[in-house]
Recover the amino acids of this structure.
């Protein structure tokens, strides 16, 4: 017993890191599942439908008022969806390039999870900082990891050895690489304002009241980042790699069963990751400018404040997720060349201009 | 890029052939390979079983060959083996988004052959016009929704589908069937309007107009929708006429041709309505023309409901059929009590109407264009030959000329804007 305690004491960093990873995954995976449900329910609301309302658990479903209510909300639908994905036949066509075909879904999913590592999802609980890896170059790490995500889609398109996925793969590589540039440029002014690449510092910078949130200082950057995030996550109006009415299913046409579900999860965890990024960079992260919630939770007796901070962070992420979903059901899809045009000829120049203007303003402010 | 080739050819002619083939190969290498993509017959946006062979250079289409026939049922041959009345259910399945309009067009063709199309009672004519326009609204709503869905706006599709449901409800209370209506008969209709139907139809007219506005808000000035449809699939007026386009596709190109105006039938001359005409002939124009046509259809339906002889419940007992026992089935109670009616019933059911020998063509303005029936009769109850001019089939013929030069994503926008239905293209 003592030896275990000794081990924990000696390797405190490691153990806490593992605990936090497990905690984040335990929140993230259900969030992915339930954002699929949210997508279905919100789309149903927009389209004047009912949405999933049939799945009931055997025992809970018979609880008088609560059971039918939860069923009508579709609360159990993700369970059925997940089960279905596992039970479907995992069909591998015999003309695919097998190794890549198996690798691609994993490569699409993992980077989305890894992005979460540097995002501060709360202030402190006890003395523990609520971020898995408090890197000094947080944003660089994020962009590095996000860039890996495109390999999943490209590999999927290549591995399927079939024409529609091939077109989807080409589209995704061109689209994601172009929008990454716009995205990267849009955040440079943020760091010019903050003066640090650590995401924790970015949040501290925004803790001075509502209008210290960077969205109010850099609305252009926020807008470009948000649109680029739509493109990076392959969401409508930028879902060209997938575009089911043109390319049938795009890069995942040939996938079935859980492999397909992994792509699906990858898309939603990417959405969550980019929402979290936007919350951190532009919307004040876990802070709220009222009730003294914009200061770090104290080590002693600050447990509830620490938890509230996590709650605030999640709430902000959920709001952005709803925007992601809402936009998808309201807009048509761009054409490939129009998308490139928008990325290269509109957003990159605007982002560059934004950098220069911010630099000039900062220089004038701090000039002696 | 100069390449040397070694030729093994005996005479000069063979040598010339080899040289030209080698030159063509060099040319191919310079241009790079093209990819042949097989779109359909089962593809999300080919609306049924259209198959198009696309030759792609990157995402640009260099060649398009439509391949039809996956839904061929031999309707025209089937028609030769049954009476005119028996063929009415087959017309439901032509443009299956507007079965009522098909029923009317076919019946009018046969009536024209028999020379009784002028003798139709007015109430029957008004009801038939209402049917045609309801079918037009229903078909255009689906065409519009599918078009929007093809360019990515799924919500419009479900909104328009909600309205179509109401058309189906009306069709159900009118004919007993939602989809396969078979409503008309040679010389009249299978039944009169049920009670309450006129009020329900008026309510539908009020509701559907709201839906048009909603759909327009989502699409007409949407920047992305404009980008996707404007100057995409431009059909010039000359080209549209050359390829024999009809319906909204022709009018989208700026040609003011509507069969309801050009060769009027039923009571259309008495009704006030405008013919929507586009200007550029791109996909967006075709979309706008359909949008406006639906509004005009509502206008026509309202006029018809107002002027309906006999009123909603037919208080004055206006006839809906031609009063001729040799054309229209007599009522059942007379069949069981009167000798003459019994004979009429027997002859009509076993041999069909007695059409004179001759040939006739009748075209009606259907949602997709001019649906024409050409009937060649040698007399008797069955046609010797029945040719159907399906507007979708003719409209699709423009694809090989229209698609090259566009991008892969434009194919779905163009197909959506041409708005075809395969049940009619492959008969």
């Amino acid at each position: 017993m003592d030896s275990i305690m000794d081990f924990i004491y000696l390797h405190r960093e490691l153990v806490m890191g593992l605990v936090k990873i497990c905690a984040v995954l335990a929140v993230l995976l259900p969030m992915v599942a339930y954002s699929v449900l949210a997508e279905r329910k919100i789309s149903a609301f927009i389209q004047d439908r009912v949405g999933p309302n049939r799945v009931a658990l055997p025992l809970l479903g018979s609880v008088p008022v609560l059971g039918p209510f939860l069923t009508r909300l579709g609360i159990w639908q993700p369970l059925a969806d997940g089960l279905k994905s596992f039970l479907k036949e995992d069909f591998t066509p015999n003309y695919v390039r097998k190794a890549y075909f198996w690798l691609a879904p994993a490569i699409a999913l993992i980077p989305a999870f890894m992005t979460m590592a540097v995002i501060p999802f709360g202030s402190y609980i006890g003395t523990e900082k609520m971020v898995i890896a408090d890197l000094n170059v947080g944003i660089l790490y994020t962009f590095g990891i996000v860039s890996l995500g495109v390999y999943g889609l490209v590999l999927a398109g290549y591995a399927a050895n079939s024409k529609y996925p091939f077109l989807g793969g080409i589209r995704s590589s061109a689209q994601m690489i172009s929008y990454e540039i716009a995205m990267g440029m849009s955040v440079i002014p943020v760091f010019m304002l903050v003066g640090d690449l650590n995401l924790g510092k970015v949040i501290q910078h925004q803790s001075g009241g509502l209008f210290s949130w960077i969205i109010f200082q850099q609305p252009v950057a926020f807008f470009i980042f948000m649109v680029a995030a739509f493109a990076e996550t392959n969401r409508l109006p930028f879902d060209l790699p997938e575009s089911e009415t043109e390319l049938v299913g795009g890069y995942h046409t040939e996938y079935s069963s859980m492999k397909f579900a992994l792509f699906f999860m990858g898309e939603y965890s990417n959405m969550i990751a980019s929402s979290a990024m936007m919350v951190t960079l532009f919307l004040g992260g876990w802070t709220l400018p009222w009730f003294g919630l914009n200061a770090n939770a104290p080590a002693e007796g600050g447990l509830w404040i620490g938890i509230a901070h996590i709650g605030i962070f999640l709430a902000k992420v959920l709001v952005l997720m709803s925007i992601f979903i809402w936009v998808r059901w309201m807009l048509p899809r761009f054409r490939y060349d129009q998308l490139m045009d928008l990325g290269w000829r509109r957003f990159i120049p605007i982002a560059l201009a934004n950098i220069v203007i911010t630099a000039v303003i900062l220089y004038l402010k701090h000039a002696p | 890029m100069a390449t040397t080739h070694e030729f093994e050819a005996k005479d000069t002619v063979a040598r010339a052939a080899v040289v030209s083939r080698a030159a063509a190969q060099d040319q191919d290498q310079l241009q790079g390979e093209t990819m042949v993509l097989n779109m359909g017959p089962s593809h999300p946006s080919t609306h049924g079983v259209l198959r198009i062979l696309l030759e792609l250079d990157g995402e640009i289409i260099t060649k398009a060959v439509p391949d039809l026939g996956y839904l061929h049922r031999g309707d025209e041959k089937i028609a030769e083996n049954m009476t005119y009345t028996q063929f009415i259910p087959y017309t439901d399945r032509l443009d299956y988004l507007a079965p009522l309009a098909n029923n009317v067009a076919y019946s009018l063709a046969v009536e024209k052959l028999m020379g009784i199309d002028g003798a139709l009672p007015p109430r029957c004519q008004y009801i038939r016009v209402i049917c045609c326009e309801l079918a037009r609204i229903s078909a255009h709503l689906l065409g519009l929704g599918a078009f929007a869905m093809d360019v990515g706006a799924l919500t419009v599709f479900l909104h328009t589908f909600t309205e179509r449901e109401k058309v189906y409800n009306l069709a159900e209370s009118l004919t007993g069937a939602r989809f396969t209506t078979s409503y008309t008969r040679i010389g009249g209709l299978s039944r009169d309007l049920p009670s309450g139907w006129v009020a329900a139809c008026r309510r539908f007219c009020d509701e559907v107009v709201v839906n048009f506005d909603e759909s327009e808000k989502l699409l007409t000035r949407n920047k992305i929708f404009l980008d996707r449809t404007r100057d995409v699939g431009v059909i010039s007026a000359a080209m549209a006429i050359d390829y024999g386009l009809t319906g909204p596709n022709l009018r989208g190109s700026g040609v003011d041709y509507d069969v309801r105006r050009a060769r009027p039938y039923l009571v259309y001359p008495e009704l006030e309505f405008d013919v929507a005409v586009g200007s550029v002939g791109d996909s967006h124009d075709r979309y706008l023309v359909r949008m406006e046509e639906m509004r005009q259809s509502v206008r026509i339906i309202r006029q018809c409901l107002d002027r309906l002889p006999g009123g909603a419940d037919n208080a004055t007992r206006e006839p809906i059929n031609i009063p001729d026992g040799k054309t229209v089935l007599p009522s059942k109670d007379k069949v069981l009590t009167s000798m003459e009616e019994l004979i009429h019933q027997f002859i009509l059911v076993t041999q069909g109407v007695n059409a004179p020998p001759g040939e006739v063509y009748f075209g009606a303005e259907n949602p997709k264009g001019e649906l024409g029936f050409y009937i060649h009769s040698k007399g008797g109850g069955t046609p010797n030959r029945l040719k159907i001019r399906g507007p979708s089939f003719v409209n699709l013929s423009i694809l090989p000329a229209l698609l090259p030069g566009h991008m892969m994503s434009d194919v779905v926008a163009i197909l959506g804007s041409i708005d075809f239905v395969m049940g009619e293209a492959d008969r």
